[in-house]
Structures
1.
Amino acid sequence: DRIFKGASKTREKLGVVDELLTYWNLEDAEDTLEELEEALITADFGPRTALKIVDVIRTKIENGDLKTGADIRRELKSSIVGLLTQRGGSSELSLGDTKPAVVLVVGVNGGGKTTSIGKLSHKLSQQGAKVLLAAGDTFRAAAAEQLAEWAERSGSQIVVAKNNKQRPDSLMYETVDRAMREELDVVICDTSGRLHTNTGLMEELAKSKRAIGKRLPGAPHEVILVLDGTTGLNMLNQAREFHQTVGLTGIILTKLDGTARGGAVVSVVDELGIPIKFVGVGETVEDLQPFDAQSFVDALFP
Ligand code: GDP
């Protein structure tokens, strides 16, 4: 399937793990474990997460629980699935009991934010929800136009800035207000992801989040980071910065149908404890799948 195809970059780098384990020999376990750790780091798992995985394997070898290369491979896979599920928590959207549910979506430009919002909106509309989008990237006119196209495609409504002076926080306040008055089910807020004015961007996101909560206490119910699946370890730095500013509750990992480097997301989930909720596997409205840790890991270690 497409996740399998897309995990190609990481899988390629993990090929060396198979080689290591094929010639596994208990006598030189320590050398092999070091090479295994190295291989995981090269495959973008990040030094801390790689060390953690290898430490667990080392202990199990010492206890006599793992004897063959096949045992170790099985343990390697199940420990990554474990990291992705236990550290990550639920991969369901939790939209609360009261309406509207508000989802704030953040991420750097080009990562697939607008596309993912379109896909998510489509999914929710198909489940019968009335969805309202907020074109919160008020700095780029093209961003609002692009989101408006997705609104049409997914059968949802959209609020765009009245003029080029309206700030994102005011737009989001207004959007939530309208959803409350019209008794709509879900609000999804797009945001700016320009990187060149980073501090300004982070302040603006924090303000937008506060404005949403001011209109509707308890909102936003989800704060989703869209991560480009083709990014390597830089993913972790990005995620950390957004998490510090807006407190993330979930991740959408995009472009897994391309030459993705999915390994890096394991360290994001492990270090920040944020679950992956969905994966993007293409450019159409249908190409959003719920995240499944086991099939993700099966794609990395076929
Ligand atoms: P934004 O700047 O973060 O809003 O990013 P966009 O939503 O505009 O997406 C940037 C580019 O990535 C566009 O060309 C999208 O079609 C493409 N894209 C987004 N998600 C996916 C995905 O899951 N798979 C593929 N192949 N392309 C994607």
2.
Amino acid sequence: AQLAAALQRFGRSAPPRASADRPAVTLADLKAALDAGQVKPYFQPKVDVRTGVVKGVEALARWLHPQLGTIAPDLFIPMAEQGGLIHELTLSIAEQSCAQAARWNRHGLRLSVAVNLSPLLLDADTFVGEASTLLEHHALAAEQVVWEITESSVVANLGAALGTLARLRLKGFGLSIDDYGTGFSSMQQLARIPFTELKIDRSFVSGASDRHHLRVILQSALDMANRLNLVTVAEGVETIEDWRLLQDFGCALGQGYLIARPMPGDDLPTWLRQHTQH
Ligand code: C2E
Ligand code: CA
Ligand code: CA
Ligand code: CA
């Protein structure tokens, strides 16, 4: 009941029910999958819009189910949140992402890794310590790890969010406002939290080049974030026209299917070689 109340506070609804494209899986299945290492991060590049250089990656959770194939996070993240598994899942994704970043480092590839943080973790007082321990295990600098938190979840619980996020920032982690533009918050609220990055929601990016009102919103959000010295990221870049627009508007980083889909960590070096050859 406590969890349900917390979820309601963050505006989350019940997990979607099973259907043709939503396999019927249970919380017990998810727990077993976590224990068996079948929930893994895939990585999507974050690319410098001017130079095309890959600066970092976002870790996106995938459930690699032996019978059902790949299950998308929209199905099992809400399930983990409601069933009390989100803490364990987040630490597992973060752990695997840090291990991957450390492997890339050893091959001379220094990329920042961004991990999505559920609002429920902002209430957990052990989380900041656990996050720091991960760094020590993998000899990573905190600057190489970014936590992405959705705009809506932060403002729904500003008090608790502020404490945890300030402590993460003090440790040196990067903090990113995810899905910016969908949370109806004011910059005055967001500015109370020491964010380092702002990610503009896909709904303002995909197709902005031929939709006047999207373009205006995109440009003003980028202007504001740049003036606040936040790293600007556009998600959901799908066309070359949208990419050019981001160049014109001074967006720092772009992410989307135009560049690459999320991929297993071991595929990234090969993808990078092919991608930078031309
Ligand atoms: P998000 O954090 O906003 O992640 C971006 C989503 O957009 C990802 O979907 C990504 O694959 C997709 N995407 C990337 N580029 C494009 C594009 O050009 N076009 C379109 N149409 N989509 C694009 P994905 O991987 O299915 O993840 C969905 C959501 O699940 C994420 O949204 C995030 O909120 C959540 N999520 C994923 N992994 C985790 C995790 O480890 N922890 C938590 N708490 N949430 C996660
Ligand atoms: Ca994200
Ligand atoms: Ca997002
Ligand atoms: Ca999202």
